Amino acid sequence: MQGLPPGMTRRRLLAALAGTAAAQYVSAFGLEASPLSYTLKPQQLAKGVWYVAGAQEAISRDNGGAIANTVVLDSKAGAIVVDTGPSLRYGQQLATLARDLTNKDIARVYVTHFHPDHMFGNQAFRPDTLASSTGVIDGIKSMGSAFADAMYYAAGDWMRGTEPVMPGTILGTEPEDFGDRIIRPLHMTGHTAADLALFDEVSGVLIAGDLVFLDRAPTTPHADIARWRNTLAALGGISHGLLIPGHGPAEPGARGIAQTRQWLETIETQIIEAFDKGLDVAETTALALPAWTEKIALARYEYERSVMHLYAKLEASRWPRVDVR
Amino acid sequence: MRRPVMSICLALLGPGMAAAAEPALDPLNSPVWPSIRSKYLSGGPVVFDDRVKVSVPSIVENQAQVPITADARNLPGVKKLVIVADLNPIQHILTLTPAKASAYISFRMKVEQGTPVRAAAQTEDGVWHVGGTYLSAAGGGCSAPALARGEARWSATVGQAQGKVWRQPDGSARVRLRVRHPMDTGLARNNTPAYFIESLQMSGSSRDPLATLELFEPVSEDPTVTLMLRLPATDASVDVEGRDNNGGIYKSSLPVAPQS
Ligand SMILES: [Zn+2]
Fold first, then answer.
1. Tens digits of per-residue pLDDT, A137-158?
2. Which CATH topology does B33-255 take?
3. How far is B20 from chain A (nearest CA, A)?
4. Do residues A94 and A68 touch, judged by C-beta distance below 8 A?
5. Under an 8 A CB cutoff, do B166 and A277 touch?
6. Count of the separate structural domains present in chain A
7. Model-level pTM?
8. Element (DSSP H or E) covering residue A70
């Protein structure tokens, strides 16, 4: 809201502090001198298909924001990367990993949506290889800077040097042919206003971005839950092989689609019922979740966030006008 | 890691500053507690009391809209409930005078850093009973600070109100009310002057106030409050009168089923 000097974003403030006497107090902000490095452990899922599993955690200075899955596919035309991770440093490490795994240069980098844990590694890739929809690009344009501030705050020095970068290639609806892979972009909506899923028509691999979470509670800060549920029904109708979610384990089958739908239904119903009884945010947050969610990582944390996201919309849409004119 | 700002403030002030001469040690160990106490809690002794509870979210999803609940219903005879945030640029958030209402309020506030949030309930004997908790303001991952307000013409919507009343099993009336207002603090970079709702008064048919809220600049845009009123069983509405610091008057009337 207020308080920071004019033109001073949180990340500029941190940079300015680093050279002053205040620096000694700033280690709490994570501005340590030692260079930070991610441990990217690729897991091979099939021939020429790897993913780096994100931590099933919230963004923190411990994990450097590496909480989302990133994917590397081999193709005749070169390496194909899906999502770039939370920071410049992660992007650089992922680019090296993709080249090492495939022994090829990077032909294409898809960005599934504008959330910071999926796109702040963009800077490490050639802009023309970066591809997404206009909706995703518009999202990065309008929110990128604010996301950067939030990420510097949450992940600290892991973010050093990171700036938002817009993909340089706009995807239509036609598939892209990489020789032995034909990747169809699926323009969808629900988790955010513009979600890109990717389907390899040759191998049947479906890369869902954050439209699908598995064994990790879905996040809703920019969600339209009704649309999301429709989109999940559409995804469920695609006959796919491996399903790689945005967060959580990759596996064959549709468990992630079903679980994401069940989660959204569960929390939306619970939150709306509580809202309609007149409960406030704290009271609704305190309600118990059904037992099945105990196996879902970050269930209470994401439920609490979703209460806050939904309440503002419900107050604006479900209460009658009462002002006297 | 969960309290970066707090620990820095303590470090800068050095050891030995914390409340050496206070009758009771601040459980939140805040360096500014002594000044909060003398500025906002005058006219009676101060005790820390677990019966006064403050709930804050475990994660700040939107720094411009942080939900806060203060609940002193377990403490009999509360005549005033004051909410303060030690490390806010404007520390006094609101005061509830629950003439015929529960000592309970929920609302949302703006924060820019982690801070203790306290509720001080003054009972009829003049004693201030203080409870509180630490609000950690770390961001929420997939979230971001609130976008600048997009609405070009506030004048068209200011004062619009939405809300509802629920009769509770004990006959009381639970009111949830939202009033559109920018609640500008006057501290923003673009020199927008302070412009905020400074009072909301709720009454029933007798016109005597059931609850009065004095609001300050840190209350979030479009103030949204929850209160529990001892509304007479035969009353069919809750009437609200709000006033802002520019003299704007905002009236609402919320229908409620009479108690059967
Ligand atoms: Zn996301």
1. 999 999 999 889 888 888 889 9
2. Immunoglobulin-like (2.60.40)
3. 24
4. no
5. yes
6. 2
7. 0.87
8. strand A70-73
